[in-house]
Structure formats: structure tokens, C-alpha cells
């Protein structure tokens, strides 16, 4: 067990906060693992150029060895120092969306340790948009490899407490910068081809990308579950709550009928729905995720973590429209779900 240091950081950063982030940066330089907030979810960071430090991330999370990590940097210049053969459209994407919730997959030039890329020839790089992450990257003065700071298989952490619950004693430090913003992870875009291809939907939508650079492809595996995904992480079952989750496409009336039917079997049911649908439902425990997709994305992982198997037998969750940020939300919900039902069919 490690003695995990926890720092509370306010935004805007005070002088003391900067000192604490500086300590965390020194730890990173010495090969330690430190969790920190980004605009999407918390990440578990280590020096991306130090193979042993990176190995500690895999160990702390129980992460499969073949799942590569994203290297985080503070600036476009630092990003360019990790990659080669960069197509022109990447410059436009970086100037438009970074810092922000987008990760570029590009040919690696070998500056980062081999286990960051899990042996692939490409590397995922991103510039997070968060003052704590920015300060940490500046002070550490090196790329920081960071997957989401959850135990492998669990929902990603949007609060420092989620990180603490999963990884206290397994990491060296935690910078608690309060709740993250977007709530789902960055969009992972393969930029090795003539056209960019979305490998994981996330905080920047396909529609937003297309407005800036025209046609953007999407990994066929995102729509056809029989295809092999091009991003190693997408093949794993993720985000699993403690309790089985049924993802239901249907009207409020149809969802209500299902709730009654399962309650009659003696199941203790929790419901997740939009504010609008929640208002029409009747069940002992209903959590409203919010009234629009940004609110729903922000609340999703926290709510998925809130169901304990002691109190619930089944989560019934409304399926959302797969447009804009809804694509990322539904991608995560499908992975979290044990059943998907379309009651309109
Ligand atoms: O928002 C985020 O992206 C967060 C914060 C902490 O930055 N990070 C995150 O990391 O979600 P992680 O490790 O949980 O997910 C990274 C995803 C995985 O699906 C991984 O397989 C994929 O990115 N990935 C990383 N490098 C890749 C590469 N070279 N080629 C294809 N996929 C890659
Ligand atoms: Mg993750």
C-alpha cells in the first residue's frame, strides 16, 4: 500500500495551490503516479518517457497491457515533439479544438516509452483544457501519460472522491480540483490517414469536426459490434455499474410498463432518465441526469457509480438520441449495459 497524498486545489489557483501542484510535478519527475483533473474526467498520470513509471499506471488500474495510454502535453509545440508525419488537417484541428476534449492518434517518433503505446507504432496525444492539468504539465516539463483514473472496468471518475475510492493506496498523489466539466472522455481521432477517423466518440462531436475540416470517418466498429475496433480500449467492457443496467429505447409509457413488470418480480429498481422523461415516470428511485446532452454527459458516470448492489437489483436507463454529444453518451451506456432493448421494434 502506498501512502497517497491528497491536495485540495481551488480554481483560480492560489499561491499555495501552485506550490502543491509543483510538489506533485516533482513526484512525477521522480517516477511517481499522480491523479489530476482534466476538463473531461480525472486522469492517473506518470512521466510518459519513463517506462517504469508508466508500468505503475497499468498496475494501479489493473489495466490490460495491450491498451495504450494517451500522452498529455501543455502546448502544440510539445505535442509535435512526440509525433511524426503529421497531415495538414491536424494543424487545423489543433488550432480549433485544443486545448480541449480531443486526442490525436499519430505516428509516434519514439520519445515516449514503449508501454505508453502498448507497442503500437502510433501514439494518442492531447492538450487538456484545465488549469490544474496545465500547471502540472508546465511544472513537470515532460509529457504525462494518463488513462482515466478509475480501476479498469469501472466508470471513469468525474470527482476526486471517485478516484480516491478506486485508487487510494495504489497511487502516490491526488490533486483534487473539484468536479470535471465535460463528464465523458475526449474524442479519439485517428489522424494517420488522408481523412480523420473517430475511434472513440467524446467531448468534441463529429458534427463539430466536420464543420471545420469537412468529411470525417468513423470506425465501423462503433456501429457494427461484430467489427474489430481500431482502438484497443474500445474492445473492453467498460463503465460497468455494480448492478445490471438495462438500456431502454422507448416512450415514457413503455418504460413505465417495464418498471412495473420488473417491480412485480420483486426487483429493487433504480431509474436513470432525462429530466423530461423522469417527470413522467413513477418509481421509488428516479435520478434525473439533466435536461440536455451536456448535463446528461456531465452527470452520467457519477450516477452510474451511485448504485450499490446492496440497495438495487436493476437499473433501468433511458436510451438517448445519438446525435452530437449523445453519441458519446450512448457509446458509454451501451458498454455499461447488460441488456439493450428497443421497445419500438
Ligand atoms: O478524456 C480523456 O481522454 C481521458 C483524460 C484523462 O485525458 N483519458 C482517457 O484515457 O480516457 P483512457 O486510457 O481511459 O482511454 C484512452 C483511449 C483507449 O480506448 C485507448 O485504447 C485509446 O484511447 N488509444 C490510446 N492510444 C491509442 C492509439 N495509439 N491508437 C488507438 N487508440 C488509442
Ligand atoms: Mg478509461
Structural write-up:
There is one protein chain. The chain has 11 helices and 16 strands. The longest helix is centred in the first third of the chain and has 15 residues, at 15-29. The chain has 345 residues and is an alpha/beta fold. It is 31% helix and 19% strand. It has helices spanning 15-29, 51-61, 76-80, 88-97, 131-140, 160-167, 206-213, 252-263, 275-278, 293-305, 326-336, and strands at 5-8, 34-36, 43-47, 70-72, 102-107, 122-126, 144-145, 173-176, 187-190, 197-200, 217-218, 245-249, 269-273, 285-288, 314-318, 339-342. The protein has 2 domains: 5-218, DHBP synthase, CATH 3.90.870; 245-342, Rossmann fold (3-Layer(aba) Sandwich). The protein has an 11-stranded mixed β-sheet, with helices on both faces. It has a 5-stranded parallel β-sheet with strand order 14-13-15-12-16, sandwiched between helices. It is globular, with a radius of gyration of 20 Å. It binds threonylcarbamoyladenylate (TXA) and magnesium ion (MG).
What would a concise description of this structure say?
The chain has 345 residues and is an alpha/beta fold. The protein is 31% helix and 19% strand.
Summarize the biggest pleated sheet: 11 strands, mixed
Unreliable runs = none
Structural class: alpha/beta
CATH architecture of the largest domain: Alpha-Beta Complex
Tell me the span between the first and last alpha carbons: 51 Å
Number of helical elements: 11
Report the order of strands and helices. EHEEHEHHEEHEHEEEHEEHEHEHEHE
The level-1 CATH class of the largest domain: Alpha Beta
Strand order of the largest sheet: 1-8-2-3-7-4-6-5-9-10-11
Which geometry do the CA atoms define?
globular
Per the CATH scheme, the topology name of the largest domain is DHBP synthase
Strand content: 15-25%
Q: Could you name the CATH homologous superfamily of the largest domain?
A: DHBP synthase
- In total, the number of domains comes to 2
* Overall mean confidence score, pLDDT: 96
User: How much helix, percentage-wise, in residues?
Assistant: 25-40%
Bound molecules: threonylcarbamoyladenylate, magnesium ion
Amino acid at each position: 500500500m502506498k501512502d497517497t497524498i491528497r491536495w485540495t486545489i481551488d480554481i483560480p489557483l492560489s499561491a499555495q495551490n501552485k506550490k502543491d501542484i509543483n510538489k506533485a510535478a516533482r513526484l512525477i519527475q521522480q517516477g511517481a503516479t499522480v491523479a489530476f483533473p482534466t476538463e473531461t474526467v480525472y486522469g492517473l498520470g506518470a512521466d510518459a518517457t519513463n517506462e517504469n513509471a508508466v508500468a505503475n499506471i497499468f498496475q494501479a488500474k489493473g489495466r490490460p497491457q495491450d491498451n495504450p495510454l494517451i500522452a498529455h502535453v501543455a502546448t502544440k509545440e510539445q505535442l509535435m515533439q512526440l509525433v511524426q508525419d503529421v497531415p495538414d488537417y491536424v494543424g487545423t484541428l489543433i488550432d480549433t479544438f485544443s486545448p480541449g476534449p480531443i486526442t490525436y492518434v499519430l505516428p509516434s517518433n519514439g520519445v515516449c516509452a514503449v508501454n505508453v503505446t502498448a507497442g503500437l507504432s502510433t501514439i494518442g496525444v492531447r492538450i487538456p483544457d484545465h488549469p490544474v492539468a496545465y500547471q502540472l504539465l508546465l511544472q513537470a516539463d515532460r509529457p504525462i501519460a494518463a488513462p482515466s483514473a478509475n480501476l479498469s472496468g469501472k466508470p471513469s471518475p468525474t470527482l476526486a472522491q471517485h478516484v480516491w475510492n478506486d485508487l487510494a493506496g495504489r497511487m502516490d498523489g491526488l490533486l483534487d480540483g473539484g468536479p470535471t466539466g465535460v463528464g465523458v472522455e475526449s474524442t479519439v481521432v485517428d489522424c494517420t490517414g488522408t481523412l480523420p477517423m473517430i475511434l472513440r466518440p467524446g467531448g468534441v462531436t463529429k458534427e463539430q469536426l466536420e464543420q471545420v475540416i469537412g468529411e470525417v470517418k468513423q470506425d465501423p466498429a462503433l456501429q457494427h459490434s461484430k467489427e474489430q475496433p481500431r482502438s484497443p480500449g474500445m474492445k473492453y467492457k467498460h463503465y460497468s455499474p455494480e448492478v445490471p443496467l438495462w438500456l431502454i429505447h422507448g416512450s415514457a409509457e413503455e418504460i413505465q410498463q417495464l418498471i412495473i413488470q420488473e417491480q412485480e418480480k420483486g426487483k429493487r429498481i433504480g431509474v436513470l432518465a432525462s429530466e423530461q422523461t423522469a417527470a413522467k415516470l413513477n418509481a421509488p428511485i428516479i435520478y434525473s441526469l439533466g435536461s440536455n446532452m451536456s448535463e446528461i454527459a456531465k452527470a452520467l458516470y457519477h450516477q452510474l457509480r451511485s448504485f450499490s448492489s446492496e440497495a438495487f437489483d436493476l437499473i433501468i436507463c433511458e436510451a438517448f438520441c445519438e446525435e452530437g454529444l449523445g453519441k458519446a453518451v450512448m457509446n458509454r451506456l451501451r458498454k455499461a449495459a447488460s441488456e439493450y432493448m428497443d421497445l419500438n421494434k
